[in-house]
Design goal:
Elements: H1 2-31, H2 37-50, H3 54-64, H4 66-71, H5 81-95, H6 97-108, H7 111-122, H8 126-132, H9 141-154, H10 158-170, H11 178-193, H12 199-226, H13 230-245, H14 253-259, H15 274-293, H16 311-319, H17 340-355, H18 359-380, H19 396-399, H20 404-414, E1 424-426, E2 453-457, H21 462-465, H22 476-484, E3 488-494, E4 497-502, E5 510-512, E6 515-519, E7 524-525, E8 530-531, E9 536-537, E10 539-540, E11 545-546, E12 549-550, E13 561-572, E14 579-589, E15 595-606, E16 615-624, E17 629-636, E18 643-656
Parallel strand pairs: 1-2, 3-5
Antiparallel strand pairs: 2-4, 3-4, 6-18, 7-12, 8-9, 9-18, 10-11, 13-16, 13-18, 14-15, 14-17
């Protein structure tokens, strides 16, 4: 008994480590404004709608979107709902390790092997994508289905709980009825071919089959009622999802060229090109399936019960051109939850097939799974030391950087928007705007000139540049500049978040400055330079001029207002005749819709202001008349005699517009 407790304690420790690490990542993305209105916002609003839609609406949600009813339990938390949801999803996803451990003990008769498989699940790299990208309905399915399967195997009264629980798991998200349906088929088949005394299995199987088919039919009926025909319902559903998801990929052409970002569009079947699409797609599909099964050594293919359960996903790959189902995007989003349950149940059964009752062999097989899971995790998990080399480079340090003060400032600004307001233009990283009555309007296409309020945040600037679906294909950079020229007034500027209101003529009622700070390691010299301890020698003797200093363009964005830029520099023998030029530039969308460069600062700095041999702060002021993105900071000189060292620079807002 003590031995069994020890194994559970080890697993509990692994689960705690997993939960702590992923909860931090999830919260850091929330506080860093890197969660989305188009996904997490949909969940939050859907949870609110599920309990405010009357009896018929409640039934519709229960039968095909039941996960939203679970998420609705967090609505009383108000603005903290989003934080609670991302932590809950992390805890729930990791909890599947416990039924996997229990199932593996029954099949393999080895606590050691079972423990290694359960820990392997926690580092299974496709799980990372589910945890990484916001919160989704299907994320609840694997743990619930695997748990219900364990309860069935346990026997006794637990089996009476397992069947309704498995049916409920299929109600979490439409389309997942296929797994209880298949399990029901296996139970009926086992009764017919192996053991006709297993009457409960027959009854359970028939119940699962009938319930799954009825649920599927009911949900297809709901979809059909939304469109004019079943065919249009099937065609329109992926398109609606794709239009939302494409928010994350599309940049305006000018910005795409400026940033030198090559975006490969997902394949689209066109007349005369269908065969080429499928030839190319088969390779991608093989990578998707192969990489999903590699960490578990392809063991699910040995399971007579769960290998066939992968066929619906294979069919989905073959017939769907939606990019999210295919390599490499599949592993960065929530879609691996589609196959998690059959993969891991099949892994346990596949290990049992190989071991044939031998605990030693089972231990070796489980050790192989653990090693391969660890190796692939090193490349494909966000925390993997080799992740930067992989196609799923999460850029963990960048995507988990945050400032809680700026996040709280954004919440304060959002709270200034009236609760009943729905005509709001906002960029895609503000799910905190929801839920609200009729909040679904915010998730649709709102023309900028229809908006009563416009909310902009510049801290995670890349969202400024997307052609947001929510504002009918325009970037917030364009929307904000148009609004400032069209009678919208600035109500608040707090911590990088700006609130505009139509026909507002009062002053700024709330202001909190924000700032950027860059060390030597963050700067991009134009040409050659050498680094010392915490500084850069930016003097180019070859070109006879001082080189430019750039910060990452995604980060430098300016709300309307006044700013100070401060350079931390040392004059190491510059001649008195040398003149430096401090330049701050950026881009805005002009009235004709073109990306236009604007110079915010171009000031000559006499070297006499920089005493030799001492680190000093050189501070200059500039003004931004509108919302400016893609900012850069440069120090230039055409006549350098001596050396200039720099440790970094900072930019701080001093007053609103």
């Amino acid at each position: 008994m003590r031995r069994n407790v020890a194994f559970y304690l080890v697993l509990l420790a692994a689960y705690a480590a997993y939960s702590a690490a992923w909860s931090y990542i999830a919260l850091a993305k929330v506080y860093g404004l890197r969660v989305t209105l188009g996904d997490l916002g949909i969940i939050v609003q859907g949870a609110w709608d599920s309990v405010h839609s009357g009896v018929q609406g409640f039934v519709n949600y229960l039968t095909g979107q039941a996960a939203l009813l679970i998420y609705a339990l967090f609505l009383p938390l108000g603005p903290h709902m989003i934080e609670a949801l991302v932590i809950f999803q992390t805890l729930w996803l990791g909890a599947a390790a416990f039924p996997i451990f229990a199932i593996a003990r029954r099949y393999l008769r080895s606590d050691v092997a079972a423990l290694m498989l359960a820990i392997s699940y926690l580092i299974y790299f496709p799980l990372a994508g589910v945890n990484w990208f916001d919160v989704h309905r299907q994320a609840l399915f694997p743990t619930l289905f695997i748990t219900s399967y364990y309860l069935y195997l346990r026997g006794g009264r637990s089996r009476y709980v397992s069947v309704p629980l498995m049916i409920f798991s299929s109600m979490l998200r439409f389309g997942y009825e296929v797994y209880p349906l298949w399990f029901g088929v296996t139970l009926v088949g086992y009764w017919a071919l192996r053991d006709r005394r297993e009457r409960f299995g027959l009854a359970a199987g028939l119940t699962l089959i009938v319930a799954s088919l009825l649920l599927a039919a009911y949900n297809v009926g709901i979809l059909t009622s939304l469109f004019t025909s079943p065919t249009k319902a099937i065609q329109a559903a992926p398109a609606s999802v794709s239009s939302t998801a494409s928010t994350y990929l599309r940049l305006t052409p000018g910005l795409s060229q400026l940033l030198s970002i090559n975006i490969v569009a997902p394949p689209v079947a066109e007349p005369g090109h269908v065969q080429l699409l499928y030839v190319r797609g088969y390779v991608v599909d093989a990578l998707t399936i192969g990489l999903s099964l590699l960490p578990v050594l392809f063991l699910p293919l040995l399971s007579w019960r769960w290998a066939p359960a992968l066929l619906p996903f294979i069919a989905l790959l073959a017939f769907s051109s939606y990019w999210g189902y295919h390599y490499p995007y599949f592993f960065r989003f929530e879609y691996p939850s589609i196959i998690m349950a059959p993969v891991w149940l099949g892994t346990v059964e596949g290990a049992a097939v190989i071991s044939r009752g031998s605990r030693r062999v089972a231990t070796y097989v489980a050790a192989g799974v653990l090693v391969m899971s660890a190796v692939t995790a090193a490349f494909f998990e966000p925390y993997g030391p080799l992740n930067y080399m992989s196609f799923t480079d999460y850029q963990l340090s960048q995507w988990t950087s945050f400032n809680v003060t700026y996040y709280e400032s954004m919440i304060d600004v959002i709270n200034m928007v009236p609760r009943n307001a729905t005509m709001i233009a906002a960029q895609d990283n503000m799910p905190e705007l929801l839920p609200r009555p009729n909040g679904d309007v915010l998730l649709g296409c709102i023309e900028a000139n229809q908006s009563q309020y416009i909310v902009v945040n510049v801290i995670h600037g890349l969202y400024l540049y997307y052609d947001n679906t929510d504002v009918c294909g325009k970037s917030m950079l364009e929307v904000a500049d148009w609004a400032l020229r069209s009678g919208y007034g600035i109500v608040a500027e707090e911590g990088g978040t700006m609130l505009l209101e139509r026909n507002y003529s009062g002053g700024v009622v709330a202001f909190r400055p924000y700032s950027y700070s860059y060390g030597a390691g963050d700067l991009w010299p134009l040409f050659t330079a050498w680094y010392g301890k915490g500084y850069i020698n930016v003097t180019s003797f070859h070109y006879g001029r001082l080189e430019g200093l750039f910060a990452e363009p995604h980060a430098l964005n300016f709300l309307p207002g006044r700013y100070n830029v401060t350079f931390y520099v040392m004059n190491d023998g510059l001649s008195p005749s040398t003149r430096l030029y401090a330049v701050v530039t950026g881009y805005y969308i002009s009235g004709d819709g073109l990306l236009t460069q604007i110079t915010l600062l171009n000031e000559s700095v006499p070297v006499s202001l920089l005493p030799q041999g001492r680190w000093v702060r050189l501070t200059l002021s500039f003004y931004s008349p509108t919302l400016v993105g893609l900012g850069s900071v440069t120090l230039l000189s055409d006549d350098v005699n001596g050396t200039l060292l720099i440790r970094g620079f900072s930019i701080a807002q001093t007053s609103p517009s």
